[in-house]
What we know:
Layout: E1 2-6, H1 10-21, E2 25-30, H2 62-65, H3 82-95, E3 102-104, E4 107-113, H4 117-120, E5 123-129, E6 132-138, E7 140-143, E8 150-151, E9 167-170, E10 184-188, H5 192-202, E11 207-211, E12 218-219, H6 229-233, H7 236-244, H8 247-258, E13 281-282, H9 286-291, E14 295-298, E15 301-304, E16 308-311, E17 317-319, E18 322-325, E19 329-330, E20 343-344, E21 347-351, E22 355-356, E23 364-366, H10 376-392, H11 406-409, E24 412-414, H12 433-444, H13 450-456, H14 458-466, H15 485-490, H16 492-497, H17 511-529
Amino acid sequence: MRVAVVGAGVSGLAATKCCLDEGLEPTCFEQSQDIGGLWRYTEHIEAGRPSLYPSVISNTSKEMSAFSDFPFPEDFPVFLPNAQLLDYLRHYTEHFSLREHIKLGTTVVSIRKHPDFATTGQWNVVTEADGKQTSDVFDAVMVCSGNFSEPSLPLHCFPGIERFRGQYFHSRQYKHPDLFQGKRVLVVGMGNSGVDIAVEASRVAAKVTISTTRGAWLLGRVFEHGYPWDMVLNTRLMSLIKTNLPRPLSQWLINYQVNQRFNHENYGIQPEKSCLVREPVLSDDLPSYILTGRITIKPGVKEFKDNAVVFHNYPEEEPIDIVVFCTGYNFSFPFLEESVVRVENKHASLYKYVFPTHLQKPTLAVLGLIKPLGGIMPVAEMQARWVSRVFKGRGANGSPPVSQNAAQTGHVLSIPPEGSLEIPELRMLKTEWLSYLDTLASFIGAKPSVLGLLCTDPWLALTIFFGPCSPYQYRLGGPGRWEGARQAILTQWDRVLKPTRTRVPAGSSSSFPSLLTVVGFLLLLAAVIFGF
């Protein structure tokens, strides 16, 4: 079975590897001259591909971001600079011999249903390389083109911008902070990019202001007791609590957790509707930069003047020289017919955020568009494992229903801008990371059974329930089982502490796992009651 994979970024590499695992024949088309997608930095902006600034660091830790059968090297830092994450992707490509299945410098021009699609589910794929177009027939397609290539810059939402005499641009064009030297800078939007750019600008600018309508929850990479945030928050125990507590109590818990580091209201960034679960912003610097006056937080922009801006509920004009619009990205599939994946107002009807809901045959899937609170690499990989088995005819338990209305089944993908355009009706995708992974894993028989492990390997059972839900858990059994999964789970804290314990000899892996013994048996009853 021949499968066309569009894009050789994180999702495309995982898709190619999972196809090979299932005995399929993937061909991965990458329009640029190298793999890596979002994580490959180039000084110049390339049309049709993501643009990265050189200081970007991963927001999720290496143990929670790894592919499930390929841990990061132990000497890699816990949160990875983009160059080292790209290095990891190169090693992954080499280790699993993916390079021979990737066609670089090849653009996918169009993907259309084959005339006999209703019976075969096949697709006509037209590609272009070196100015020459080629048409071929594939049995299935995985779209892994991402959603960070088409900037959303809705200038019509900002009255007066046409008469503003200063400089303005979208965050996609940002590379270095030198252009902010001695300037008064306004950053519109409080997503991860907006905060990163504001922090960098504040080191050289005369003044930096962040404009946000909705505010944001702010997390630090360094969390409780100095551990990575996602290794503390993304556990099976925490997921169980969040999904089973009454909603008011769950909302109180979220508010309590995110306000432990500092009171968001005192810093002017408390989310307007704090009950909504939105993607938090990761920054270790912003609170201290607000405290020291380097960065000021203001509400949404009311209008621009010649050399100034007016904010809502603020009558005074504030002089500015440069505006950076961190208003997110649109996602689209120009190579697909609109009837295949309908995108309207940043919504697309995709079953489990993967399969178009109205196709007669489930032979086309979209990977990597989901934005959960957790690492995207394990999610993209799990999607690819499920999809490749559906294509192979082995994923019957989770095969997508044909021609269903996703809106009625709660599977509508919604990707709002990350910035302070912040139109109220746009909703953040509310998918709990662990629950989503477990759902897809159950489709292919790879979800770990904590109760089953309690009988055969109790220490491992307690570790995967109370400790971080690292991706290796999904290789303990079922299809794609990896012999090294158990060891990878039990040594995950060693790999976290190895790059930080550089002054003293390495001791025991962590005090955190030892706590499992203390609290494990006290909470074990809850695990049994809730079916874990």
